[in-house]
Design goal:
294 residues; alpha/beta; five-stranded parallel β-sheet; 11 helices; 48% helix; 7% strand; globular
Length: 294
């Protein structure tokens, strides 16, 4: 059994379980969602094995207190989508297909006895994935440069990413975004009364992202030739929360289907101000202390 946890101590199994609950996984070219869905299934199998090990050992109360059922694959999938998986794609249709794929994967594991139409009301609503899987170019982003106050803030933000230290001005809006995005994710799942509609909440999140962009030196969330681009420090600001995980831990993706000789030509057309060699160096520095799954 490749998912067996029998060789682990109770403490070891619990520590791995806690770490896996915080891991951040990105597919920057999600397509139809095949890679992250497969990653989700792998994590579900590992979570189930670890939960069984923990429950049967001396630390079982730590799992049962959180109402974790090793047999409930639906809940494991929901938690992994909420806490661990992120994706982008330049093709909006592909992103919508990926969302559908995750929803279908959830539905097949929801166990409910349906004997009459009223039983359908017991089936929980599906999560909102708009801020988990986003449309845009994940390779190119444009940040205003210069000697303005905003540019200096942007420079401080670069240092923050480099040294994995939370910048004070960035911390409060991150915390607010995390809470708002969690509420949006669960909006149709929880039965509690809401003070705002789902669309209002979505608009508030987008407005906060725009304001945060201005704070770090981006006058507006621009587009290149009509194509949205992903601003990682804005669109996925929550992954820079030090209490969770500072940045992505694993990146899964196919290699780009583009001739290497054409990359500089592409960058020039977008007036990005970077070259292929600079991109390679930046990539190596970014993932020097991270694991990559290709």
């Amino acid at each position: 059994d490749s998912y067996s946890s029998e060789g682990l101590t109770d403490t070891g199994a619990f520590e791995i379980y806690k770490l896996l609950s915080k891991i951040k996984i990105l597919d920057p070219a999600i397509g139809s969602g095949a890679y992250p869905v497969r990653m989700m299934l792998e994590l579900v199998n590992i979570h189930q094995s670890l939960a069984k090990k923990i429950i049967s050992g001396t630390l079982g109360h730590l799992v049962t207190e959180n109402k974790i059922d090793p047999a409930n694959r639906y809940q494991f999938k929901l938690d992994i989508i909420r806490n661990n998986l992120y994706g982008t794609d330049i093709d909006h249709f592909a992103v919508e297909i990926a969302k559908l794929r995750f929803w279908l994967s959830l539905v097949v594991d929801y166990e409910s006895n349906i004997s009459n139409p009223i039983d359908l009301n017991a089936i929980p609503a599906l999560p909102n994935l708009d801020f988990k899987f986003r449309t845009g170019d994940s390779l190119i982003a444009k940040v205003k440069k210069g000697k303005t106050k905003e540019s200096k803030i942007g420079y401080n933000l670069d240092l923050m990413f480099q040294h994995h230290q939370m910048d004070a001005f960035f911390e409060e809006p991150i915390r607010k975004l995390v809470g708002m995005k969690n509420n949006f994710f669960n909006y149709d799942i929880t039965a509690s009364k809401r003070k705002v509609t789902k669309e209002q909440l979505k608009s508030e999140i987008q407005e906060l992202e725009k304001n945060l962009a201005k704070e770090i030196g981006i006058a507006e969330i621009e587009t290149f030739k009509g194509i949205n681009h992903i601003l990682w420090q804005i669109h996925f600001a929550e992954i820079y929360d030090q209490d969770l995980s500072f940045g992505f831990d694993i990146c899964i993706a196919n290699p780009p289907y583009l001739k290497q000789e054409k990359i500089n030509e592409l960058f020039n057309s977008f007036e990005s101000g970077i070259t292929n060699d600079e991109l390679v160096n930046a990539y190596e520095n970014l993932y020097s202390d991270r694991k990559s799954v290709v």
